[in-house]
Specification:
This protein is α+β, with helices and mostly antiparallel strands. It has four helices and six strands; from the N terminus they run ααββαββββα.
């Protein structure tokens, strides 16, 4: 069975991030895409446009001392978009991050237009404090 095109887009974006291919990650997002990460920590916020989204992802990776790792459990897609379930881990500065996240990527015209990033907020805020 073939994967839905939105599943393929999300998987391509995640694989590119894992390889450090930020140009491919940026290309997955619409020019006015929004990435929404709630919380009170230093990486929480609303990021608009591919450059801001890449900046957020790069900052999270750098602030983890380069240890940030994604273990994707599954990506499920349909005509609305794709939902990605993953475990994110990192260790840096005496802190450890190990939490399960759900990212819901709303898509249109072959691009991600909005990402609703929902992690274990306490764990993210504490790690990136």
């Amino acid at each position: 069975m073939n994967e839905h095109p939105n599943t393929v887009l999300a998987r391509t974006m995640v694989d590119a991030f894992s390889r450090g291919d930020l140009a491919t990650v940026a290309a997955a997002f619409a020019s006015d895409a929004v990435w929404d990460l709630p919380g009170r920590g230093t990486v929480a916020g609303r990021y608009v446009g591919p450059d801001a989204i890449i900046g957020f992802l790069a900052t999270a990776y750098e602030r983890s001392g380069g240890t940030l790792k994604l273990d994707v459990f599954d990506i499920l897609g349909n005509d609305w978009g794709a939902v990605q379930v993953q475990r994110v881990t990192a260790e840096h500065g005496g802190r450890t991050l190990d939490c399960v996240e759900v990212l819901a990527h709303e898509m249109a015209a072959g691009k991600i237009v909005r990402t609703y990033h929902r992690p274990d907020q306490h764990a993210i805020d504490a790690f990136f404090a």
